[in-house]
Design goal:
single chain; alpha+beta; globular; 3 strands
Length: about 200
């Protein structure tokens, strides 16, 4: 299939969109390229020596494909946007991608980011957990842990400029941990799915 909804066309549209975004003056205001800025943000959020696994579950195709290669007992670990009062305020008020916790699993196709919904991980793994368990019986939700109520914001993740010095990472990390323990507020969640045997 070679139309507006096939994977190749979608991928090309997404790449073209982000190439245009990367070239916008507001992103390179401080004389840095888009990719260099991302490197700074990630370096601030992830301490040296840590391992990172980044996955996006999207409409479930990745979960179905991973079930074929992950052995029973194995796991998928995802860091995804999450919904709570704090994150909804931030995502709806400050973030550029749509965040609709009332939407379904299907997202309309169209232009760049028109098929995005930052609330989708919460929809799939929390609101519609029963549906997830029915449709993806080879996976069980082992844990969902809220993360980073503040670090993403102070990293410059929304403004493209880090408003705090990078040496303060340890302080922000400890503050985040205290907030998560006391309020369960986080802009993201670490979601661990465990592969199980299905008869």
């Amino acid at each position: 299939m070679n139309g507006p909804h096939d994977d190749t066309t979608f991928r090309r549209q997404r790449i073209a969109h982000w190439d245009r975004v990367a070239g916008q003056p507001r992103i390179s205001l401080f004389g840095r390229t888009y990719h260099r800025r991302l490197h700074q943000i990630y370096r601030f959020l992830i301490p040296p020596g840590q391992r990172v696994l980044e996955l996006g579950c999207g409409n479930g195709r990745l979960l179905a494909a991973a079930a074929a290669v992950v052995r029973p007992g194995g796991a998928m670990v995802m860091i995804e946007p999450w919904r709570n009062r704090w994150s909804e305020l931030v995502y709806r008020g400050l973030h550029h991608e749509p965040f609709d916790p009332h939407a379904g699993w299907e997202l309309p196709a169209g232009g760049p980011l028109s098929n995005a919904n930052g609330a989708l991980p919460w929809i799939v793994f929390a609101r519609d957990r029963g549906r997830f368990e029915d449709e993806f019986q080879q996976w069980e939700i082992a844990s969902i842990e809220p993360l980073m109520p503040l670090r993403y914001l102070v990293s410059g993740g929304l403004a493209w400029r880090c408003p705090v010095p990078t040496w303060s990472y340890g302080l922000w990390r400890r503050l985040d941990e205290l907030l998560v323990r006391s309020t369960a507020a986080g802009l993201f969640a670490r979601i661990v799915l465990r592969r199980v045997n299905v008869p």
